[in-house]
C-alpha cells in the first residue's frame, strides 16, 4: 500500500494517509533542473517549513504541489489522490510570494478576499455563509476596517494580510504559503503569526516556504532544508540555518547532492519572473 492510500485501524475505521506525499519528484525550469528527486511527506495537522538557500528549489517544490510547475518524474498526491486527478481544490489554500494582491486590477479588499471563496460557491453565487466566511477571514488578519478600500492603497504588510485572508476565505484544510513574511513589517509579521497559530489550533495542515523562522518558529513541527534541488535535512528545525556552522542531519534523499557549506537564505528563490499560471486554484500571480 502506498503512502497516499488510506489504511484501516484495529477498529476498522479509516485512518487517512498524508495530506501531501511527494516521492522522487523532479522538475525543471527551462533547461535547468530545479528539483532532483525529492521526497516529502506532510501529515494531517503538521506545520512543515521548507528552508534553503536562494535557488535551492523551495518555491518550485510548493508550485509542483499545486500544479503550477509540471514534474518530469515522480509522484505527488494530495489527500491520498494523485495530483493529476485531484479536483477538490477548495480544501487547499495557497498564498503566493507577494507581488500585489490585485495583480494590477482595481479591486477592493473585500472583492479580493471574496475571490478566494469562489471554489466553495455554486456557479459563483454567494450565500450568507460565503459572505460570513469572507468577513471572518478579514477579521482574522485584522483587515476588517479596510474592507472597502482599494488594495492598491495598502502597504506591503497589508497586501500580505489580504493574500492570506483570500486563502483563508475558503476555509481550507491545507494551507500552503510561499514566503509569507518576506518584506513584511514587524507589526504585520506578528498579526500573521497569530493568524497562523489560530489556524493550526483549529487543525489546519500547513506547508510554508520561509526565509527565516522568525516569529513562526514556535509553530513549526518539522523543517525540510533543500539544497540544489535535494532534501538535505528533514527533522527538527535546525538552530542555525544560513549561518556558518549548520549541523544538519543529511537525509537519504540528498545522496549525490553537495554537502552543507556557507549558504545564506534569501527570499524569492526560483519563482522570480514567473508570470500568472492557471492551475486548479485559479489564475495565480
**What's the architecture, going by CATH?**
3-Layer(aba) Sandwich
- Class from helix and strand fractions: alpha/beta
CATH class: Alpha Beta
- State the helix count: 5
Percent of sequence in beta strands: 15-25%
- SSE order: EEEEEHEEEHHHEHEEEEE
Oligomer: single chain
Q: In CATH, what is the homologous superfamily?
A: P-loop containing nucleotide triphosphate hydrolases
Shape: globular
Q: Would you give the CATH topology?
A: Rossmann fold
Mean pLDDT: 81
- How far apart the termini lie comes to 37 Å
Helix content: 10-25%
Characterize the largest beta sheet: strand count, sense, and whether it forms a barrel.
Answer: 6 strands, mixed
Pick out the low-confidence regions: 1-15, 241-250, 252-256, 258-280
Number of strands: 14
- Domain module tally: 1
